[in-house]
Please model this.
Amino acid sequence: MMIATFLLLAAAMALTVIRLLRGPSLPDRVVALDLLGFIVAGMITAAALFADQPGLLDIVLVFTILGFFSTVAFARYLEKRRFDDD
Amino acid sequence: MIEWIAAGLALLGAVLVLIAGLGILRFPDLYTRMHAATKASSLGMSLLLLAVALRNPEAMVWMKVLCGILFLFLTAPIAAHLLGRAAYVHKVPLWEGSVADEIAGNYSDDHTVLRGVARQSGTDNLSNTQG
Model:
């Protein structure tokens, strides 16, 4: 069960990294980065479950909050940015 | 028994996150990708967190897990909305098979001012359209 969970999360991470590298526009990359943060938080949650260390949940909460704020900051930056460079 | 339920929930959550990854790789344009990434990953993360709470049924753990899930469901739509609007303002193209674009025509020509808002408050920058 543990190995399957981590393998699935790692596969999701690989797919997301492909989109992050390939993404035709900058917003695509930002969406991929957002999802990457979620996947890392999910991996830490799985570690908390299978290593029986619920203290790791604090890290998950902080990671989620950081991911949200970074996405909001990216969105603001994208809106304010000039149009010429993509 | 409860361990197996928790492990099953974690596995289901991982499958959902994998679906989000598949969606973000395979869907044709930014908006559909965002739809896959936001929803599936929120539910997957919630299931993973619930699995931890089931495995360690203490008040502190339950509180952290419920706070995490609440925060996730509060912030994921906000982040997706902001990103989607930023992308639309910058004219990221829709998939050619899209059937509806309800904002089309409501933005000014350079896609920086919403018309309905611009009429009331002058032609300032985007900060006026921040809802």
Chain B is about 70% helix and 0% strand. The first helix of chain B runs from residue 2 to 26. Residues 100-131 of chain B form one domain. Chain B has two domains: 2-92, 100-131.
